[in-house]
Amino acid sequence: MSWEPPSPRIRELIREGARLALDPPEEWLRELDEATLSGPQRGQLSHDPALAAATRRANRANLHFWAVANVDRPGERVAPNTGDVPVAVARELVRRGFNESGLDAYRAGQGVAVRRWTELCLSLTSDVGELRELLDVSCRSITTFVDDTIAAVAGLIAEQRDDLAQATHAERRETVSLLLHGAPLPRDRAEQRLGYRLAGRHTAAIVWTEEPHADAAALGRVTDLIAASAADPHPLTVLAGEATRWLWLHGRPDPGALREQLTAEPGVRAAIGSTGADLAGFCRSHLDSLTVQRMLARLASPQQLATHDEVELIALATSDVEAADSFVRRVLGDLARAEPGIREAARIFIAAQCNASRAADRLYIHRNTLLRRLAQADRLLPRPLAEDVIAIGAALEVLRWRGTG
């Protein structure tokens, strides 16, 4: 493509706009993230917190890359961004089984970038001639940069796919995918490829991080902790992505012990599925662990560990986050904004089957203290606790997993 340099005045305007784009308003970034993580082709990206985090990092990296290039050489063609972030995204897409169609997110981001850049240009000059040349050059620059970057990242994806095709984890992941999709794969062949016995009872888990640079060692340590908690010396581990591990165990981890142990690995999170028998249990448990992981992501929950047994009801109740928030406000009223100690007293009281002595023991407080807090909760609730126990308990659990309980 021929690339005629713009006039000196337009170069000056592009440099000025690019400097502003180096520090974009938070509104720009939110709109960019929403565009790249929504739509039928990109829904799977938004459901996976590690992939969603990688996509958000790529958005910022590409915006910064283009802006820096236009501060240094305004109006010149910008080379494709093949830095660390796009490489990491390519690796993640391949390991999750995505093809180049996952790069559709770049196109969605391009539309937002062009619109926001146009708004910025309108603030830089009111001269019609200058504005026409400024928009022509800069919008062509953005479009070409995105085209070139997509082509470069697609090449990286092809390279990553070739490399990964030879890896053991690729074979394991392919086998797991076949089993999860009900392919007629003989059990003995599947067990040989996985190095894992499919008979017996299974519990699946997902271990992941949303940190910018995945710490493989930390992911491995948490995987080992979960396996040790279930007393399984030979778990099945699948490298689902650079920032994610899938895990299957012949046993059931102890969530209480794990929560205490995981505090040593604050950047790593874990979702534990149900426990089930044989191949059906192997598949069901993994799907349940995905449900847990997606719920934590959907609610932006600060909880580091969750099990399907704990959150099955909450996952169903919060499938529509806006409806769940409306439910909480309606059921809890002023209690939703009360001191955490009052809300926790009501939650634990309900969890203890409304046994005050048992609830006080769990909270390590005197029974009379508990009763005073319950009386405060009753005054704040639209309906007395005794008349709406189930709904109030569910609403309090939603607050708990959202990190506001």
TrEMBL record:
Its recorded name reads: PucR family transcriptional regulator
The family note in this entry says: Belongs to the CdaR family.
For the PucR C-terminal helix-turn-helix domain, which residue ranges apply? 344-397
Every CdaR GGDEF-like domain range: 189-295
Q: Which Pfam families match?
A: GGDEF_2 (PF17853), HTH_30 (PF13556)
